[in-house]
Amino acid sequence: MVESSPNIFAEDPVVLPPGGPLYLQLKRWIEDAVHSGAIKPGEALPSERDLAIKVDVSRVTVRKAVQHLVRDGVLIQRHGSGTFVALPHQRVEQSLSQLTSFTEDMARRGMAVRSIWLDRGVYAPSPEETIVLGLSSTEGVARISRLRLTGDTPLAVERASLSSRILPDPEQVSSSLYTHLEKAGNRPVRAIQRIRAANLGEDDAKLLDVAVGSAGLNIERISYLASGRVIEFTRSIYRGDTYDFVAELRLGDQPILTGSQK
Ligand code: GLP
Predict the structure, then answer these.
(1) Please, what are the domains in the chain?
(2) Which atom of ligand 1 lies closest to the CA of 221?
(3) How do the pLDDT tens digits run along the chain, 262 residues long?
């Protein structure tokens, strides 16, 4: 929904904070208004032309101030619809030592999870899926691909592959894959997770509502049952600006060498 311009822009005359070039004064004025809450996240700024008239500066000055604020993440520009105050992104912390599901990670932070289904079905496995999941020649692969969101903020695209023997009907997964597996006595107990930095390609950037080439995290999780069988091979792409992975580090068995001992 496009919000209308807030009242602050109706002030007459607008008094810019003194000091430095005009575009920086205007930038500071907008920044202050955002930080004080006078302009709220999601609200639209007046057009470049209207703002130039209201503040009595040139359109070039407005453009420059706005460009800097977009670069700093204070404002966002949507092609064809205007300039808006950016929504604050609450970063999500995920422990690297707990085998948790996306739903559990979010629930712990009081966030509700939503998934948009991109694909779910049983297919002939790729050679990689056959090897990683240890599939026999008669097994198919159940694939579920979801865009995972909290509220309206997309956080990750997750593409999971499982043996069709474990998940014969992917349509039966309602919201949480791990809850579904748990009910069938197939909740993974161990996983190996590999995390790599990535720049988002066109399709994933569009799904995650960020610019093409934005920073992202590629996460590959291979999960195991207590029996040692691989149950899940999931490739996820997380938005780099919303997720923090946190690992607790402990001193190992190696003694610390002091300067004199080296
Ligand atoms: C995490 C993992 C995925 C796993 C998913 C299950 O996000 N990266 O490998 O499939 O959780 O989440 P849920 O049970 O919410 O579907």
Answers:
(1) 22-85 (1.10.10.10), 92-246 (3.40.1410.10)
(2) 9
(3) 444 555 677 766 778 888 889 999 999 999 888 888 888 888 889 999 999 998 899 999 999 999 888 776 678 777 677 888 877 665 666 777 788 899 988 777 767 888 999 999 999 999 999 999 999 999 999 999 999 998 778 889 999 999 999 999 999 999 899 999 999 999 999 999 999 999 999 999 999 988 899 899 999 999 999 999 999 999 999 988 777 777 778 787 665 555 544 4
User: Residue 47: CB within 6 Å of ligand 1?
Assistant: no
Q: How far is the CA of 42 from the centre of ligand 1 (A)?
A: 30
Ligand 1 touching residue 9 (CB < 6 A): no
CA of 172 to the centre of ligand 1 (A): 16
Pocket lining: 160 vs ligand 1, CB cutoff 6 Å = yes
For the chain, the DSSP string reads: -PPPPPGGGG-SS--PPPSS-HHHHHHHHHHHHHHHTSS-TTPBPPPHHHHHHHHTS-HHHHHHHHHHHHHTTSEEEETTTEEEEPPPPPPEEEESSS---HHHHHHHTT--EEEEEEEEEEEPPPHHHHHHHT--TT--EEEEEEEEEETTEEEEEEEEEEETTT-S-GGG--S-HHHHHHHTT----EEEEEEEEEE--HHHHHHHTS-TT-EEEEEEEEEE-TTS-EEEEEEEEEETTTEEEE------SSPPPPTTT-
101 CB less than 6 Å from ligand 1?
A: yes
Does the C-beta of 103 come closer than 6 Å to ligand 1?
Answer: yes
Q: Could you tell me the pTM of the whole model?
A: 0.66
